[in-house]
Amino acid sequence: MSSKAALTIVIADDDADDRMLVEDAFTESRLANPRVYVEDGEELLAYLRSEGKFTGQPRRLPGLILLDLNMPRMDGRTVLKHIKADPELRRIPVIVLTTSKAEEDILRTYDLGVSSFITKPVSFEGLVDVVRTLNHYWIEIVELPASEAA
Q1: Residue 19: partners with Cβ closer than 8 Å, 6 or more residues away
Q2: How far apart are CA 47 and CA 60, in angstroms?
Q3: How many domains is the chain partitioned into structurally?
Q4: What does the alpha-carbon distance between residue 14 and residue 67 come to, in Å, rounded to a whole number?
Q5: Considering the domain boundaries, does residue 106 fall inside one?
């Protein structure tokens, strides 16, 4: 269980307020997993590949990615396509956490290989419930591939 507790979660969201709310929801849920926040798809890929501002940092793939769809520079749909096309990254579960409820977004992201699609709750309490559920399912129940240093 200790390796699951150490599982890193990467959250890709361009909205600073949403990142703060997600962090507060993780704190409220007492989820101790390390978290890394990135602001768009390009920064997410740079983190995953240890490029750009992440060059020289030890590479450790996350156990889970929470991905917003609507971000500047490279949106969630495009970065998801890159992740699932990369043999080193494709096993990482990606959960879309977005304001979109569009059926087209749901279908397209599942076609691209997303593990789950969740519409962001409108209340903080709802977000805390989502984080607790993510923790229970993805960290306590599901067997995930080990994160590997590359």
Answers
A1: 11, 13, 37
A2: 9
A3: 1
A4: 10
A5: yes
